[in-house]
Amino acid sequence: PAERATYYVFPQVALYSLVNLQTDLAPLPHEIATKNYIAKSIDFVICRCNKQKYRPYVSPNSMYNYYAYTPILLIELDGQSHYSPTQYGKKNYNRQQENASFKNALSAGLKIPLLRYRITNKYLSSKDMPYIKQMLAENLP
């Protein structure tokens, strides 16, 4: 297209494709940080698309456009396993809590807001849309 949209939504973004791991990023044990970094993802990453120009080394007399995607908002959908240790087991519940703590610390360290949306049923439905739209309207710059 001649112009791109202002925002792009990327689903299931692997943490290793979003950021390089730093040991001082979060006050969590390095083992938890490494495990979460390699195996986990953010449910949705909303990015701002910025058109920029560059002059490639191989063609110094030409200018080209490229599009840079800057993450501005992270969204996590928290299902029942985040809130119910009896239904999904204490081990799974503890793992979910570790993952959530890591993602919260990651968000704070990157200075990118993280919105958590609690899913009361097993699936998102059209009934969730008004709240999600409101949440986005309040948090998108």
In short:
By secondary structure, the protein is of the alpha+beta class. It has 5 helices and 4 strands. Strands 1-2-3-4 form a 4-stranded mixed sheet, sandwiched between helices.
Order of helices and strands: EHHEEHHEH
State the end-to-end CA separation. Answer: 24 Å
Radius of gyration: 18 Å
Low-confidence stretches: none
- How do the strands line up in the largest sheet? 1-2-3-4
Which of globular, elongated, flat, extended, rod-shaped describes the shape?
Answer: globular
The beta-strand count equals 4
User: Please, how many helices?
Assistant: 5
Helix content: 25-40%
Structural class: alpha+beta
> For the report, how would you describe the main beta sheet?
4 strands, mixed
Please state the average pLDDT score.
Answer: 79
Q: Strand-residue fraction?
A: 25-35%
